[in-house]
Amino acid sequence: MIHTPVCDLLDIEHPIALGGMGSASSPAMTAAVSRAGGLGAMGCHYLTPAQVRERAVATRKETNKPFGMNFLLFDVREDSFAEALQLRPAVMQFAWARPDQDLKSFFDRSHEAGCKVTYMAGQVPEAVRAAKAGADVIIAQGSEGGGHVGWMGSMPLIPMVVDAVGPIPVLAAGGFADGRGLVAALALGAQGILLGTRFLASIESPLHPNFKQAIVDSDGHDTQLSEIPDIAAGQVWPGAMTRSRRNRFIERWAGREWHLRQNRAEAIAQLRAAREMGDVDEGPLSMGQDAGLIHDIAPAGELVTRIAQEAEQILTQRLPSMLQREPQRVRA
Ligand SMILES: Cc1cc2nc3c(=O)[nH]c(=O)nc-3n(C[C@H](O)[C@H](O)[C@H](O)COP(=O)(O)O)c2cc1C
Predict the structure, then answer these.
(1) Rounded to the nearest whole angstrom, what is the distance from the C-alpha of residue 1 to the centroid of ligand 1?
(2) Looking at the domain assignment, is residue 215 inside a domain?
(3) 118 and 52, same structural domain?
(4) pTM, whole model, 2 decimals?
(5) In CATH, what number is assigned to the domain containing residue 73?
(6) Which pLDDT band holds residue 144 (cuts at 50, 70, 90)?
(7) Does residue 156 have a cis bond before it (omega within 30 degrees)?
(8) pLDDT digits (tens, 9 = 90+) for 319-329
């Protein structure tokens, strides 16, 4: 079994974490990942305090294993965050602070409530800022990933963050979907991985079945970084674009963002309707390039086990067989 120091720190069996994904999270998905020995996460963005409590209670009904609560700091609701602190989750999973925001106060309050703190960063300076503010784990997120991402690819970003924040453990995110990805992340110096897109195509994911199928059908080449989903939602994300499926909705507004700003209300109403109806051409679908590695809709717990087993098999069988012994000297 692959076991890294972050497993002990977070009290998990496998170094595999679920990204908090706002309305794309569900208590069933969170609990399934934690039950299987990974770290589940509950997206708290947009939730009222009552909803935060309700979902945490629903998750705890399904598992007594640790899970995280995810907050987007640039847009955090103080009352919902205060409610989450009272619930004392094992982990507070933060991301996307404004440059002028004081991370330390959020981290200190979380530590006082007995939580471990993770912070997701898409750039080295942001990772260092979080490390200095007292984060226990840094998530280095590359731009291959789904949802809001920065500009650096995982391959250079992860070892750069590892070097910059060590000995604080790093989890790698953005483009990881299987055991090969876990082994690659370990080789880059991370202690595990955090995944979003892979778990969106799980049985427990709350996405409409058509959206899950669109991930399975994707060859990974049909995503695009764009500001269009945020313009439609009327939000300004600090330092990120959204990686989502390049569908009719994105293509209609690309290059005409000014027009979208003027017609936002109409566009957002259409988006919401399309999402509910499972219209994959008109509804937004945040997903990473690793969609091209996803070929089934499986139970989330089974995915954790599958990734851990595949990685172990690579480490114990495929990689050692590549190491050549010292060649025997042939006597003259
Ligand atoms: C639909 C969707 C919603 C997301 N929402 C959040 C969020 O609310 N908070 C957060 O920290 N990360 C969020 N993320 C990013 C994930 O935590 C994670 O970094 C990313 O999915 C990793 O890349 P991958 O999709 O290739 O696995 C979201 C990702 C997706 C696909």
Answers:
(1) 26
(2) yes
(3) yes
(4) 0.96
(5) 3.20.20.70
(6) very high
(7) no
(8) 999 998 776 66
For residue 160, give the 3-state DSSP assignment: helix
Q: 187 and 44: one domain?
A: yes
Ligand 1 pocket mutation, candidates 75, 117, 120, 148, criterion most atoms within 8 A of CB: 148
Question: What lines the ligand 1 site, CB under 6 Å?
Answer: 19-22, 24, 43, 45, 70, 72, 95, 120, 141, 144-147, 173-176, 194-198, 200, 286-288, 290
Q: Flag whether 198 is in a domain.
A: yes
**Nearest CA to 63 among 91, 83, 95, 36?**
36
Tally of domains within the chain: 2
* 130 & 263 share domain: no
Q: Answer yes or no: do 137 and 30 share one domain.
A: yes
Q: Side-chain half-sphere of 223: how many Cα atoms within 13 Å?
A: 28
pLDDT tens digits, one per residue of 256-300: 999 999 999 999 999 999 999 999 999 999 999 999 999 999 999
Residue 191 belongs to some domain of the structure: yes
Task: Quote the CA–CA distance of 155 and 144 in Å, as a whole number.
Answer: 10
For the record, the structure tokens of 111 come out as 């530590």
For residue 282, being part of any structural domain is answered with: no
Burial class (CB in 10 A: 0-12, 13-18, 19+), 255: exposed
Do 190 and 216 belong together in one domain? no
Closest CA to 80 of 117, 55, 48: 48
Domain range spanning residue 316? Answer: 5-206+296-320
